[in-house]
Design a protein that fits this description.
This protein is mainly beta and 149 residues long. The chain has one domain. The protein is built from 2 helices and 10 strands, in the order ββββαββαββββ. The strands form 2 sheets. The protein has a 5-stranded mixed β-sheet, with no helix packed on it. Strands 2, 3, 4, 6 and 7 form a 5-stranded antiparallel β-sheet that branches. Strand 8 and strand 9 form a beta hairpin. The radius of gyration is 15 Å and the shape is globular. The chain starts with 9 loop residues before the first strand and ends in a 10-residue tail after the last strand. The mean pLDDT is 96.
Length: 149
């Protein structure tokens, strides 16, 4: 995320997940930062789980970000170990952009909640749990249709 020659202050932004079974998790992650796509828990877990059948190997993903104003696209999404499981299972998703100014040397975590009647994703300080920026919420169903999975 940071240019090789960046020497300014930094913070850390971490993804998170709730493992629901050996093959299913609700994942909360940064998709892009300042309009630049970034690796995240969804894609790192997909790579690590390839060829392992229904076993999901959940990965931890974090990245250094500048301690300057940032715009982050965050996503909360249900993920499965195998694509066919997603096609036949329920997938919830909510996403949106959040703007905030990270503080130098602090860690932040993308958190969320996914469910049949309410879903949300937000960023919070890791140490105290204080939310930064806005919470992206869907009141009602955030279930994806068959062709959106």
């Amino acid at each position: 995320m940071l240019p090789d020659n960046y020497a300014g202050p930094t913070a850390v932004l971490k993804d998170s997940a709730d493992m629901l079974s050996m093959s299913k998790a609700d994942m909360y992650y940064a998709a892009n930062i300042n309009a630049v796509d970034v690796d995240n828990v969804r894609f790192a877990t997909r790579r690590a789980s390839e060829g392992r059948g229904a076993l999901m190997l959940l990965q931890k993903v974090e990245r250094r970000i500048p301690a300057t104003p940032v715009k982050v696209e965050i996503v909360a999404r249900t993920a499965y170990a195998m694509p066919i499981m997603a096609m036949t299972g329920t997938v919830y998703q909510v996403k949106g952009k959040v703007e905030f100014t990270p503080e130098r040397d602090k860690s932040y975590v993308v958190r969320g909640k996914l469910g049949p009647s309410y879903s949300a994703v937000w960023i919070e300080e890791e140490a105290g749990g204080t939310m930064v920026g806005e919470k992206i919420e869907v009141n009602g169903s955030a279930e994806l249709g068959f062709l959106d999975k």
